[in-house]
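Lecture notes, continued. The same structure-token format from the folding unit now serves as the input rather than the output. Read the line below as a description of shape only.
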């Protein structure tokens, strides 16, 4: 009699009915014959609910973490990987056999692997729109690729400029523009970051971490001026497969 692998996984976040992860892993388990594995959404209104969730689900083997808890989850973990410590954000949690929780970041891996094929020699500097947990993984990946970057936020602060500072000169100096904000995510598909899209050219890459819709207004407006565009689907697939390896090592 063949022993069936039985493991529970899930996604931690808020308002995550739209999530990619549940559908992806459920389909993966079916295709690859992991019949005993399940994946579910754990939608909590605030991070303090995680303590109760952990207590009531002692048989969990791993979690993905999404907006808005990639940074807020850190105090609830027993240990962090070296990369997660440097990045300061976690999107993957492994539940060890001893019941301890170790946090990892696979966002940076997924982003790096999906961006690399697009890069040309003139892609030297990047603008990162947003300063949340996802942007930290992106910045870490850019460091590994030797690409200089600047964060953009709604308010100017240390190591960050505000949107009003972005102009034609900015686009001359920065050849990669990365949207790490949730602006434009379904169902709010008519929204987009407020930047001067007319300064995009064929020498620019516009990368949106959003995957639903497949082409956001941000990407559409950049494409209209010749930019090469990329959404976040491949990044999600790469980071999900990396998480799967972590859970099963």
């Amino acid at each position: 009699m063949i022993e069936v692998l039985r493991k529970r996984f899930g996604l931690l976040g808020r308002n995550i009915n739209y999530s990619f992860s549940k559908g992806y892993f459920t389909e993966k388990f079916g295709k690859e014959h992991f019949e005993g594995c399940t994946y579910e959404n754990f939608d909590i209104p605030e991070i303090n609910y995680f303590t109760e969730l952990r207590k009531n689900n002692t048989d969990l083997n791993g979690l993905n973490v999404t907006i808005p808890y990639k940074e807020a989850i850190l105090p609830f973990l027993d240990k962090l990987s070296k990369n997660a410590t440097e990045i300061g954000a976690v999107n993957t949690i492994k539940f060890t056999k001893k019941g301890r929780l170790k946090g990892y970041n696979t966002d940076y891996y997924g982003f790096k692997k999906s961006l690399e094929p697009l890069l040309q020699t003139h892609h030297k500097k990047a603008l990162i729109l947003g300063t949340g947990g996802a942007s930290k993984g992106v910045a870490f990946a850019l460091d590994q690729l030797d690409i200089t970057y600047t964060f953009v936020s709604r308010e100017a602060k240390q190591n960050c400029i505000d949107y009003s500072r972005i102009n034609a000169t900015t686009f001359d100096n920065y050849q990669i523009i990365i949207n790490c904000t949730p602006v434009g995510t379904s169902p709010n598909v008519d929204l987009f970051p407020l930047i001067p899209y007319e300064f995009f050219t064929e020498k620019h890459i516009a990368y949106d971490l959003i995957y639903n819709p497949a082409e956001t207004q941000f990407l559409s407006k950049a494409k209209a001026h010749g930019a090469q565009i990329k959404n976040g689907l491949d990044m999600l697939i790469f980071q999900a497969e990396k998480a799967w390896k972590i859970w099963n090592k």
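Point for the exam: The mean pLDDT is 94.
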